[in-house]
Specification:
This protein is of the alpha+beta class. It is built from 3 helices and 11 strands. A 5-stranded antiparallel sheet has the order 1-2-3-4-5, with helices on one face. Strands 7-6-8-11 form a 4-stranded antiparallel sheet, with helices on one face. The chain has a two-stranded antiparallel ribbon with strand order 9-10.
Length: about 260
């Protein structure tokens, strides 16, 4: 054996236990940092997605309700006497009388817990431009359309329409979900005034004042579909009441005022 060759070879060296522990610690820190970034980005995405859905649903609901509520009192023949045409004594089209007063074209219910409802009627024109809230096409001029907005037991904003073919036929279509509350105020104009002097819930509108309704104020309280989007419960104010919920969902209030442009006084 060549002892000179052996003496020139360098002995092999490994890593010590301390070096292994340091490497593991650094790896854990890097992995934890990457996980934290992932979790933060995912939470930010969930919040942004929740906000976007809230705003999209709110804008759609406000636009849709404003479009149809503004039709209340519409007549295909504007020369006809409105209070005569919209009368239970002259039920053109056979629609059910969901209104208490002769000639009444709008009413509603008042429920602070489960949400209000609003009913309104108008006349079809036969050319497809005037439809009910389900997108149906009334048969023609002289056919009343009775539409309604309310909340279902599943927290869905829904529209209902009475079928002109028969008083017993009612069709319902959900519009958006995750609606916690719907509150509606009715703008009442005093004699000789064209604009609303006060806004009242349906329960406070006197029976003889429904003919004085000139506008409707609609407020929706929407919540996010997912929970645990905020670090703590989000306090909100709706219908004059401040509430701190038990969950950590996002919530947003949407409000619009609709002028009843087809009302004549």
């Amino acid at each position: 054996m060549n002892n000179g060759l052996l003496t020139r070879l360098k002995p092999q060296k490994g890593v010590t236990l301390v070096e292994i522990m340091v490497a593991l610690a650094v790896g854990i820190l890097l992995t934890a940092g990457m996980i934290q970034i992932f979790v933060s980005n995912r939470q930010a995405y969930r919040v942004q997605d929740g906000v976007s859905r809230l705003q999209e649903n709110g804008r759609f609901a406000m636009t849709f309700m404003r479009q149809y509520i503004s039709l209340a009192g519409y007549q295909a023949d504007p020369s006809a006497a409105q209070r005569t045409v919209f009368s239970p004594d002259n039920p053109i089209g056979g629609f059910p009388n969901v209104f208490a007063l002769p000639g009444q074209i709008i009413n509603g219910t008042d429920d602070n817990v489960n949400g209000d409802s609003i009913n309104f009627r108008y006349e079809g024109d036969g050319d497809g431009a005037i439809r009910d809230c389900l997108g149906g096409n009334p048969p023609g001029a002289g056919q009343f359309v009775v539409s309604s907005f309310n909340l279902s037991a599943d927290s869905e904003l829904q529209c209902m329409s009475f079928n002109p073919a028969g008083a017993a036929v009612v069709q319902t279509q959900p519009l958006i979900d995750n609606v916690e509350n719907l509150q509606i105020l009715y703008g009442i104009a005093n004699p000789n005034n064209a604009s609303a002097q006060s806004y009242l819930p349906a329960a406070n509108v006197a029976a003889d004042r429904w003919d004085d309704i000139v506008s409707v104020r609609v407020s929706l309280l929407l919540r996010s579909a997912e929970d645990n989007l905020t670090t703590k419960p989000q306090t909100y104010t709706f219908n004059g009441v401040t509430v701190t919920p038990s969950d950590r969902r996002l919530r947003q209030v949407f409000t619009t005022t609709v002028n009843l442009r087809n009302i004549t006084r």
